[in-house]
Amino acid sequence: MDGGYTGIAGRSVLAIGAHPDDIELGCGGALLAHVAAGDTVTMLVVTGGENGPGDGARGAGRRAEQERAAEMIGARLVWGGLRDCEVVPDSQTVRLIERVLRATRADLVYVHAPDDSHQDHRAVASATQGAARRLPRVLHYQSPSTLSFSPTVFVDVTAHLSGKVAALAAHATQVELSAMVEPDAVVASARHWGAQARIGYAEAFQPTRLVLDLAPVQGGAVAAVPASWQLTPSMPIGTV
């Protein structure tokens, strides 16, 4: 598989999150769009979320919730096996992410934004930047705990917003205890970014790198443009 990403079916996408529900909240709509386009999507959840909202006995429940959400998205799920609130961006974490990158042959990665008040989010973002240092496409998503976020890349999720909300609802132990993942807030955020992107609903991303592959699109119909032409006063602007 070559390294270019043009949205052509069959590309490999890796989404990385520190805890169960992080990925769905940050880029669930984009992942659904990738699956709909025929891309292969893998979700790497680095910890089991043992210290999240709810009592400690919910650890196994959170795993089941995450497995159900990944199934709803149509993604393969990989567990990182690290412990919630103890993730550090050391060589072990970098190697973990490198192994998944090699196994999936990913050419596009989604991960937490680096400037975040949750230490696990910061650590996962930093380790991913190290592991994906040779990858030409790394996009960062926003979390409720993100501190600064200046997105310049947007994905139209208008057709997939209900699917994103449904995948988040699979994380019942979190939705019932956190206003940050309630459906109204998710929809409002998507509408906000959609307005910024001049579309209906969007997810927003801050790139570390985003290399565009401008290879010709196979089978695409493109209107012919004369080799030489001039705008005349009588020509309506909308026809150019």
Characterize the structure shown:
By secondary structure, the protein is of the alpha/beta class. The protein has helices at 22-36, 59-73, 91-104, 119-131, 161-169, 172-175, 183-197, and strands at residues 12-17, 40-47, 76-82, 108-112, 137-141, 153-156, 202-210. The chain has a 7-stranded mixed sheet with strand order 3-2-1-4-5-7-6, with helices on both faces. Helix 1 packs across helix 5. The chain starts with 11 loop residues before the first strand and ends in a 30-residue tail after the last strand. Mean pLDDT is 88; it is low at 1-8.
Keywords for this structure?
alpha/beta; disordered N terminus; 240 residues; seven-stranded mixed beta sheet; globular; Rossmann fold
What is the CATH third-level topology name? Answer: Rossmann fold
Biggest sheet, spatial arrangement of strands: 3-2-1-4-5-7-6
Task: State the end-to-end CA separation.
Answer: 37 Å
SSE order: EHEHEHEHEEHHHE
Question: What percent of the residues sit in helical stretches (DSSP H or I)?
Answer: 25-40%
* CATH A-level architecture: 3-Layer(aba) Sandwich
CATH class placement = Alpha Beta
Give a short synopsis of this structure.
By secondary structure, this protein is an alpha/beta fold.
SSE blueprint:
Blueprint: E1 12-17, H1 22-36, E2 40-47, H2 59-73, E3 76-82, H3 91-104, E4 108-112, H4 119-131, E5 137-141, E6 153-156, H5 161-169, H6 172-175, H7 183-197, E7 202-210
Parallel strand pairs: 1-2, 1-4, 2-3, 4-5
Antiparallel strand pairs: 5-7, 6-7
Helix pairs in contact: 1-5, 2-5, 3-4, 5-7
